[in-house]
Design goal:
4 strands, disordered N terminus, four-stranded antiparallel sheet, about 30% helix, GTP Cyclohydrolase I, domain 2, alpha+beta
């Protein structure tokens, strides 16, 4: 399967989460955290970039203009900041799973796609990391 085919599959999966869906996203959230399995990574904070796409069930609140009726991206970002600041984590995979769990704790979130990238890991690459997609168990 080509990269283009993979992107199409991801787009359909998040788009087909439910008939009436709002997409909430955060782009290029750059934070500093202790992450990695190597000894020096336990002491030296690293820059990471987080991108997030959430498929949110709108339900009866489709046209509400009240903050309490939507998944607030500010609350999500604050939750991610708190998670990242809570201590060392070995793997970007673990951090991505923890972020997905945080997002799916809101019952309105049907699908969470999370990308976590280490920005300063290779001199000859912009980043390295992982992207996951998790679904609300029904």
């Amino acid at each position: 399967m080509s990269t283009t085919d993979t992107n199409v599959i991801h787009a359909f999966r998040i788009a087909d989460a439910e008939a009436s869906v709002r997409h909430v996203f955060i782009r290029d959230l750059v934070l500093t955290c202790l992450i990695g399995v190597h000894k020096h990574e336990r002491k030296q904070p690293q820059r990471i970039r987080i991108n997030l796409d959430l498929a949110v069930s709108e339900g009866a609140r489709l046209r509400s203009d009240r903050l309490r009726d939507v998944v607030c991206y500010e609350d999500v970002a604050d939750g991610i900041r708190a998670l990242v600041g809570s201590g060392h984590v070995n793997l970007v995979e673990t951090l991505a799973e923890n972020i997905a769990d945080l997002c799916l704790s809101d019952e309105r979130v049907r699908v969470a796609r999370v990308r976590v990238e280490k920005l300063d890991i290779f001199e000859d690459a912009v980043s390295a990391g992982v992207e996951i997609e998790r679904f609300r168990p029904d």
